[in-house]
Amino acid sequence: MAKVTMILPYICLLLLMLTPLGESAKKKRKQPNIIFILADDMGWGDVSWADLPEIPTPNLLKLKQEGTEMTQFYVQSKCTPSRAALMTGRYAYKIGAGSTKVYTRNRNNSLDQSLKLLPEYLKDLGYATHMAGKWHLGFCSKKDIPTARGFDTFFGSWTNTKDYFHHDAGGYDWNLNDKPYFAANGTYNTHLITNYTQHILTQHFKDKATKKKPVFFYVSYLAPHKPLMVPRKYIDNTDCKKLKKSEDRKICCGMVNAIDEGIGNITETLKELGKLNDTLIIFTSDNGGSDSVAASNWPLRGSKQTVYEGGTRARTVFYGPKFLGNAPKEYTGLTHVTDILPTLYQVARGNTKRLPAELDGMSIWNKLKRDRPTDRHWMVYNIDSERDLAAIRLKNRTHDFKLVYWKKDRLPGWTGEGDPEELKYRRFRYKAPADYYRLFNMATNPTELEPNATIPDAALLFPEVKQEMKDKMKELWLAEVPRPYWADIPDSGPGRPKNNNGAFGTGDCDVDWV
């Protein structure tokens, strides 16, 4: 009888594993599909729910209404640094990518090949990985391109193009995996990106060999980055035509509208495939809106390439009701683009304790689902010795401060187009403090207005905070990795357009230069 009593618990456990409850738990552990959508130079005010709503984004609005908006989500202030931080989970300034000097098409520059990237981590967890759109992390060597850095397929441009229809960048730049794809010539690149995403998703989930495998898709739109180009229907057939501002603003509106259409098409494809409920969709921008494309960051100060909120705070939406638990409609926890890698690793059922300790990002998944503050108390906007510029944030239960350092006579703001009420918040050029440090109390002055009769100087009220943050900034600065020396690629390189049927190719850094 005693022996029967001893084995009874094991029998019960076995029966439990064989019951539908065990099967349900197994389903609950299923890895979600992940679609990460990135816009390029899209401003804080370029959505339909902005403070001054001008641009119609109904599909993105629907994702927001049924998901969660991350109202304190930060990116780097420029294209390549944000992409580097996204792919590595590390601050760009720590990996030689913090400078405004980005990876160009004519120099031997690229993201450090020794760093493991987001798609590689997800492949380790069993994901199929695909990318469409703008890469901008180097292509000089065959080891630099997306299909060598963790993506199963790639369809897009190595860098920026100067033409949205003909994909010219001083040479043709639209590629399928590692080769130029000339058939794309003449098709608007936002359409190319959307259509390829739909095609691969359909192929993946209808193929018996892959349909049970989770998919990670990085959808990297080039719009609304300059040049301002869009099929006219996105202006004439939408509310964009009603804008009374410049023609540039109307075109920017149309470019964002085309992205929004793409978001709707991708979600509809997932729905038709029966996979929308099994998918986590994330949308954000690589940096703030640029004045060169008449984007709007109102009422935030600054724009692309500045460390002010308008250059670094991005409209961000998480959609996936099945996975978000008790996440709020608006999540106010301080989050950064470096958090995406560890967060998605956890979403994909990976153990974040196995990630490198050197990562600057942290998983926010559990905090988001429970609507609790993140564990991030210090955040680096950027540190850039080439411009002698830095900005950091301190946020805890008692403080929320931002320190900006700029060793110039005058600190720049932004002077984009707009109506007088809007420009009141954009036009800033002021004399720097004697020590070049400016402290902002983000709890009471989130738009970083200058001290005036109603906004006291935070540095005078909180001198101890300013000193603490100055000391912290100097400490953080020690971790900066300078931008590597970049040499110009000679005309003899095999990837130069004249040697590659008029297109930019890879492999220039895989041969000896003469």
TrEMBL record:
Gene Ontology MF terms: metal ion binding; sulfuric ester hydrolase activity
Keywords noted in UniProt: Calcium, Glycoprotein, Hydrolase, Metal-binding, Signal
CDD domains in the record: 4-S
Domain of life: Eukaryota
Cofactor names: Ca(2+)
Region feature Disordered, mapped onto this chain: 489-514
Signal peptide, first to last residue: 1-24
Record carries keyword Zinc-finger: no
Domain Sulfatase N-terminal: 32-348
Stated name of the protein: Sulfatase N-terminal domain-containing protein
Source organism of this protein record: Littorina saxatilis
Lineage: Eukaryota, Metazoa, Spiralia, Lophotrochozoa, Mollusca
